[in-house]
């Protein structure tokens, strides 16, 4: 039975110009062994495919659109037992702070 996960907020610090590099156009999770492929950037929209190894291997596709200080997108994961869709959005809130 499908269910919705509660929303979650996080801060991401990105260097100026970083968002224009196709290698940085895809959100990554350092805790998973995933390979990103077929990355395409056209204007303010990025698309990609992914394949993750591990205990529960999965594949997926994603897209992200950037605006003036904002972004939104979705990723659809294909996992044994069903699909999972993640929808996200964000906005610039200020300068990066050293951590």
What are the salient characteristics of this protein?
mainly beta; 46% strand; 5 strands; single chain
Description:
By secondary structure, this protein is mostly beta strands. The chain has strands at residues 34-42, 45-52, 58-66, 70-79, 82-91. Strands 1-2-3-4-5 form a five-stranded antiparallel β-sheet, with no helix packed on it. It is globular. 0% of the residues lie in helices and 46% in strands. The protein has no helices and five strands.
Helical content class: under 10%
First and last CA, distance: 40 Å
Q: Residue-averaged pLDDT, rounded?
A: 79
**Largest sheet geometry:** 5 strands, antiparallel
Helix/strand layout:
Layout (H helix, E strand, L loop, with lengths): L33 E9 L2 E8 L5 E9 L3 E10 L2 E10 L8
Antiparallel strand pairs: 1-2, 2-3, 3-4, 4-5
In short:
By secondary structure, the chain is mainly beta. The protein is built from no helices and five strands. The chain has strands at 34-42, 45-52, 58-66, 70-79, 82-91.
